[in-house]
Amino acid sequence: MSAIPQAVAPGRGRAGAARERAVLVAVDFTSGRPGLSPAARQARASAALDRATRGEAAPETPEPSLPRDLEFDLSLAEFQELARSAEAEIAAVLVQHRPRPDPATLVGGGKLDEIDATARATEADLVLFDHDLSPSQLRNLEARLPCRVIDRTQLILDIFARHARTREGQLQVELAQLEYQLPRLAGRGKTMSQLGGGIGTRGPGETQLETDRRRINARIDRIRQQLEAVRRIRRQQRGRREAVPVPTVALVGYTNAGKSTLFNELTGAEVLASERMFATLDPKLRQLTLPSRRKVLLSDTVGFIRKLPHSLVTSFRATLEEVERAELLLHVRDAASPLLEEQRLEVEAVLQELGAQDKPTLQVFNKIDLLAEGAATPMPTGAIPVSALKGEGLDGLLQAIDAALVADPLMEAHFSIPQSEGRVLAALERGATLLNQSYEGNNVALTAWGPTSLLGRYRRFQRKENNGFDGHIADKSDGKAANNNTGRLSGERR
C-alpha cells in the first residue's frame, strides 16, 4: 500500500543535503499581462469603482506601464530568486511565448520535447514551472519528463516550510500543503482495493486513492482544530492588550521590500533580515515608543508576492490577524524596484482578501539609498522616503505614525501635583513630554503633552478652569495642540 504524499517538514531545513538541480520553465502568455495577477487586476478595478462611487479623483501614482518584454524579464528574475530561496541550483532556464496555455501540458509539444532533453542533459532533479499546474497537467508532465515537476505554488510552499520555526507556523504550512495535495492525488484503481474477509464484506473495498483522501481530510480537520486553539489564545492575548489602550501598527508589503530591516531599526529587535524571499514567516511584535512618548506595538508580517497562493492566505489567517486588527498599516515599498506599481497592486489585492483594504495606511518608500543620484521616483502625496539600512528618514516616519494614530489622541493638560505624589510624576515623565515645570509651595506645576489615556488617568491633579479641566486634544495636521481647543477631558467646550 502506498503512503500519502509527504509534505515538506516545516522548519527542518536540508542543510546537510546536496542542492537539487532544477530546470526553470517560464511561459509568457501574450494574451494577458504576465506580471499582474487576476487578483491584482480585480483589486485595481474595485478600487477604481469605489473611488467613482465616492466621487474621488484617481490616485496620483501612475498605473503600471512597463514594456511587456521588460515586465516579463523582471518576473522571470523574481522566479529565479524564488528558486534560489528554495536552495535549488539552476541548471537551465527555458522560456516559451504562446497566446494561451495548452490545456494538457501548459506548454506546447515541441517545448515539452526541449524540456525533456534539457532535463536529461543536465541530469536535473526537478523541473520548476512559473505557473500553477492543474492536477491533469501535473500528471501529464510527470509522465512525460524524467524527473519531478513542481509548480509555482508548491515551490512557495517549500520555501515557507523551510522558514517556519514556531509550532503555529508549521501547522499553517502543513495545512496549505495538504490542501494543495488533496486534488492532486493519483488513484491506483481497483487493483489497490481493500477486500473484506468475512461474509457480506467481500468485493471491492476502499481504493488507495480514497484511503489517502480520507487520511488527508482527517489530518486537515485536526490541524484546523489546533489552529483554532491558537486563535483562541491570540484572542485572549489581544483582549489583555486591548484592556490597556496600546494601538498596533502592522508592517505590510511585497516580499524583500525591507520590512524586517525597518522593524529591527525601529525597535532594536534582531529578527532575521535576509535578501532571500519569505525570510520572515512567523509574526513578530515589539513595543515602539513614538516621539510623543506614546507606546505602540509594531508587528512584522510575512511578505506578499505576485500570484500568492490563495491557500496560503487562508492558512495564515491566524498570523495575518494582526493586520486585520491593526489601527494603522505601514505599506513598505521598495523605491528602487522597477515593478513598484505592480507590487503595490499585488499587496492591495491580498489586503482586500483580508478585508483590510480600507484601513489607514502610510506609504513608506524604503531603500532610497539604492536610487541613482539625481533619480526621481514618483511618490504619492504623504509618502515617506526612508532607508532602513542607513537609518535615514526614520524620525519623519515616527512623526507620521504619531500623527496618523487616532485611537488614543495626543492632548495637552496643565497639572498641579503634590511633591509627595512621586509615582504620578514618574508616570507622567515616562509617558508624556513635560513642559514649563515650576514649584508652587509643595506642588509641582507643569504642562504635560501626551496620550489622552495617560493624562486622563490623573485628571484629579489637573488645574480647573471655568469648572472644567484644562486639557485639549492634539491637531493631527501638525502633531501639535490645536489652537481652537476642540476637545476637553470633561467634554465641555470653551
Keywords:
494 residues; alpha/beta; Rossmann fold; Alpha-Beta Plaits; 3 domains; 5-stranded antiparallel sheet; elongated; disordered C terminus
Give a summary of the structure in a few sentences.
With 494 residues, the protein is an alpha/beta fold. It has helices spanning 38-54, 68-85, 109-122, 135-144, 152-163, 167-181, 208-243, 259-267, 310-315, 317-325, 340-354, 394-404, 422-431, 452-457; strands at 20-29, 88-98, 126-129, 148-150, 248-253, 284-289, 295-300, 328-334, 361-366, 384-385, 410-418, 433-440, 443-451, 464-465, 468-469, 471-475, 480-481. Mean pLDDT is 76; it is low at 1-16, 60-64, 187-203, 466-470 and 475-494.
Compute the separation of the termini in Å. Answer: 82 Å
CATH topology type of the largest domain: Rossmann fold
Beta-strand percentage range? 15-25%
Look at the structure and give the CATH class of the largest domain: Alpha Beta
Can you tell me about this structure?
It is built from 14 helices and 17 strands. The model is unreliable at 1-16, 60-64, 187-203, 466-470 and 475-494 (pLDDT under 50). It has three domains: 20-56 and 65-163, GTPase HflX, N-terminal domain (Rossmann fold), CATH 3.40.50.11060; 246-404, Rossmann fold (3-Layer(aba) Sandwich), CATH 3.40.50; 410-481, Alpha-Beta Plaits (2-Layer Sandwich), CATH 3.30.70. The longest helix is centred in the middle third of the chain and has 36 residues, at 208-243. It is of the alpha/beta class and 494 residues long. The strands form four sheets. Strands 6-7-5-8-9-10 form a six-stranded mixed beta sheet, sandwiched between helices. It has a five-stranded antiparallel beta sheet with strand order 12-13-11-16-17. It has a four-stranded parallel beta sheet with strand order 2-1-3-4, sandwiched between helices. It is elongated and about 95 Å long. α1 packs across α11, α5 runs antiparallel to α6 and α6 (167-181) packs antiparallel against α7.
